[in-house]
Amino acid sequence: MHKKNDIVRLIKILNISIEKRVNNDFKKMNLTMQQIKILLYLKEREKNTVEITTQKDIQNLLGVTHPTTISIIKSLEQKKFITSKHSEIDRRLKTLHLTENAYEMTQSIVKGKINFDNDLLRGIEKNELNACIKCLNKMYENINKS
Q1: pLDDT tens-digit profile of 111-142?
Q2: What residues does each domain of the chain span?
Q3: Which of 39, 45, 90, 135 is the 20 to 30 A CA-CA neighbour of 100?
Q4: What integer best gives the mean pLDDT of the chain?
Q5: Model pTM?
Q6: What pLDDT is recorded for position 90?
Q7: Rounded Cα distance, 99 and 80, in Å
Q8: Which 3 state secondary structure label does DSSP give 18?
Q9: Which regions of 33-100 does DSSP assign to beta strands (E)?
């Protein structure tokens, strides 16, 4: 029988292992896990014709501070994967857009993500995965009720 702290420890170790693996897998693209999340998020939003994506949207996506968000965005701008500009509607907001380089890169990212997901879930039956997802969602709800 697992103790509660064993579950927390295992989730933390899994999170660290996933981040290390993703960062290693995408090192050749010079991208981190956080940067990949942003690129895929922007691609999905633009595909679904969401009008604008702001720095605040990215901050909420990643669950990080404003300065951290700005740092990650600046890094993606320096790599020529995104551009940012002040919103025409509200000059206080900065909107983010993928570049052509990023569109090409996201195709490779999606392929890499599929390979990673296959490795991560190897040997896990669909019903086991569904039960795990259900438990993790319930834990998330429980921790956010407190």
Answers
A1: 999 999 999 999 999 999 999 999 999 999 99
A2: 4-145
A3: 90
A4: 90
A5: 0.81
A6: 82
A7: 7
A8: helix
A9: 82-86, 94-98
